[in-house]
Design goal:
single chain; 284 residues; mainly beta; Neuraminidase; 4-stranded antiparallel β-sheet; 0% helix
Length: 284
């Protein structure tokens, strides 16, 4: 299996790929844009929206009414692609100086898990929050320099989370009855590359993007490495399943000045033959 280029937007830091089944389209972001991209399956055009008044776009999830919940400097905002307008939904980070929003994802119950990061990426100031659709939120875990991931098992009982600076993926037990995860444990550790975005396939295997190593690794539910896939650029950030049969894996990447000759900044795609899972919608 080999990767092809799905879109070459030459993103400085492509992130947060998300497949929209109803639209048959992939959405993703350029973290530093801060820009949201969309490309339909079988189409040639990439639509893009730059988010005004912000410096980074950490991630997003699909929300009710055709909107997206975006994670930006000023908080978690409901963004309407039709108008370009956004309204504040919540800001559990409470505008802490030097701390910003990063990866976020919905669990199988439709709750949002959003992580923050220390801007210099040195101090353990990052917090993982869990938010309900009514805006209620709790601190799920803390003490990380950079929060990344997260992803959820098909049955919704396990959350995976990338402690990027700690070079490890953690696993937790979660339940719809509480916003506080339990039984934190190390799922995988890495000597080469930094664990970044995560996704889970229908068989329960975890896919982890390794930033700096140019690699995507698939793990069995018990933590055993199944297979590693190399990409033609070092900055590999996140992956998501999609396509007409939910078997195509889309991978976002970044571009650095040192990588002028590589195709970093593109979104790559590969037909894995492995079924993925549709992501929930945030029912605000």
């Amino acid at each position: 299996m080999t990767f092809d280029i799905f879109a070459q937007t030459r993103d400085r830091l492509g992130e947060s790929p998300m497949w929209h089944p109803a639209e048959q389209a992939l959405y993703w972001v350029d973290w530093y844009g801060p820009t949201l991209h969309r490309k339909a399956w079988g189409g040639d055009k990439v639509q893009s929206w730059t988010i005004p008044g912000e410096t980074v776009l950490g991630s997003f999830v699909f929300a009710a009414g055709g909107k997206l919940l975006i994670a930006v400097d000023s908080g978690l905002r409901l963004f309407d692609p039709a108008t370009g307008a956004s309204t504040l939904f919540a800001d559990p980070n409470q505008a802490r100086p030097g701390v910003g929003y990063n990866d976020s994802k919905l669990d199988r119950s439709g709750r949002l898990w959003a992580g923050t990061f220390d801007v210099p990426e040195t101090e353990p100031r990052g917090i993982l929050y869990c938010l309900e659709a009514d805006g209620a939120w709790s601190v799920a875990d803390s003490g990380f320099a950079v929060c990344n991931g997260p992803a959820f098992s098909p049955d919704g009982r396990t959350m995976y989370f990338s402690d990027s600076i700690g070079r490890r993926v953690l696993a937790y037990d979660i339940s719809p009855a509480t916003r506080i995860p339990a039984n934190r444990r190390v799922f995988a550790s890495f000597a080469d590359g930094v664990p970044d975005g995560l996704t889970v396939d229908a068989g329960g295997c975890l896919w982890c993007a390794l930033y700096g190593a140019g690699r995507l690794v698939r793990f069995a539910p018990d933590g055993a490495e199944v297979r590693a896939y190399d990409l033609p650029c070092p900055i590999v950030t996140a992956a998501a399943f999609g396509g007409p049969n939910m078997t195509h894996l889309f991978v976002t990447t970044g571009h650095s000045p040192e990588g002028k000759q590589d195709p970093g900044g593109a979104v790559f795609v590969m037909d894995t033959g492995i079924k993925g899972l549709e992501e929930p919608v945030f029912n605000v």
